[in-house]
Amino acid sequence: MLLKTTLTVLTFGLSTLAFAGPGHSDDHGDNDQASFAAGQPGTEHAVNRVIRVEASDRMRFNPDDWAIQPGETVRFVVANSGQMPHEFVIDTVQGNAKHRDAMMDAMAEGGMMEHNDPNAVSVAPGETGELIWTFSEKGTFEAACNIPGHYEAGMNARIEVSKETLAQNH
Ligand SMILES: [Cu+2]
């Protein structure tokens, strides 16, 4: 399992090198398209809503259920009130499951995984992190803490992106 993952990463890296030619320098070889089904990273000036979230050692996000309109750009302000690190990753349910598998592999190799993904923010104990995200697609997504054991203990939040919330505001 571990070996297979390493080989996959190696192979992928090599093929990216092989196909990276002039004009393709902006191609992010390590970005998994599926992980962006929930939308895309948002820009500061596009923010039209701020959502404050508490991440606690009770393995909960509070609140943990959001209704969002398609096209909204949200600044998530994630405050870690606990004594252990937490993270906040916006993805599909399947995307977060894949992310947890990758984290388990990284841990098995003896290290923690660094989170540079644009759909994720890691928050140290007592700190506050921010993530700006544009929800361009309708659907049901989730915010998850994929640190081993946390999601399973309940550290996830539902994000419903639908036009119905838009209708309610008009
Ligand atoms: Cu956590």
From TrEMBL:
Coiled-coil blocks: none
SUPFAM superfamilies in UniProt: Cupredoxins
Region span, Disordered: 24-43
Signal peptide: 1-20
Example GO molecular function: copper ion binding
Keyword Signal: yes
Domain called Blue (type 1) copper: residue spans: 53-161
Keywords assigned by UniProt, alphabetized: Copper, Metal-binding, Signal
Source organism superkingdom: Bacteria
Pfam families: Copper-bind
Protein's UniProt name: Copper oxidase
Gene label: copC
